[in-house]
Specification:
binds adenosine-5'-diphosphate; alpha/beta; binds magnesium ion; 147 residues; globular; 7-stranded mixed beta sheet; 20% helix; Rossmann fold; 7 strands
């Protein structure tokens, strides 16, 4: 199933992330696709907020992976951008799909072998100014909660 949501400010995208944190089940992986500046990390900020994770969620581009364990449930945030040209196993599979939390992956295209079955995808498109299109793709049972 596909579900399209348009946001017109980063605050709205954060609110959408908060909602995702409330309705999406443990163990799910959320793939975020879209260009640089589309709003992937902004959505993750909202998810973190919805999980009551304190502190700033930054793009983990320089860390590749950040694990937040002090919220309502664990959040694993992966940004695979810098793994584009690397074919080394750095053990990320240990973190993906953690059964009591949510995993979010930016640039999943760079770690195709690590993408689990239990997932949804959110394709974010910059429509200009502060308008963004978020196209959700996944099982109807999961996405009907997002509406
Ligand atoms: P990405 O992680 O996809 O590279 P970021 O979330 O880091 O993108 O950056 C998105 C930028 O776009 C931020 O500066 C954010 O404030 C801005 N922005 C403007 N409008 C929106 C919106 N509707 N949703 C998300 N971000 C928005
Ligand atoms: Mg980012």
């Amino acid at each position: 199933m596909e579900l399209e949501i348009i946001t017109t400010s980063s605050e709205e995208t954060i609110q959408l992330g908060e909602k995702l944190a409330k309705v999406l089940p443990n163990g799910l992986t959320i793939l975020l696709t879209g260009d640089l500046g589309a709003g992937k990390t902004t959505l993750v900020r909202g998810i973190a907020k919805g999980l009551n994770i304190q502190g700033v969620v930054q793009s983990p581009t320089f860390n590749i992976m950040k694990l937040y364990i002090k919220g309502n449930r664990p959040l694993i945030h992966i940004d695979a951008y810098r793994l584009a040209d690397i074919d080394t196993d750095i053990g990320l599979d240990e973190y993906i799909g953690y059964e009591t939390g949510l995993t979010v992956i930016e640039w999943p295209i760079y770690i195709p072998k690590l993408i689990p079955d239990f997932k949804i995808e959110v394709e974010i498109t910059n429509l200009g100014d502060s308008k963004r299109r978020l196209l959700f793709k996944g099982d109807e049972t999961l996405l009907k909660e997002v509406k």
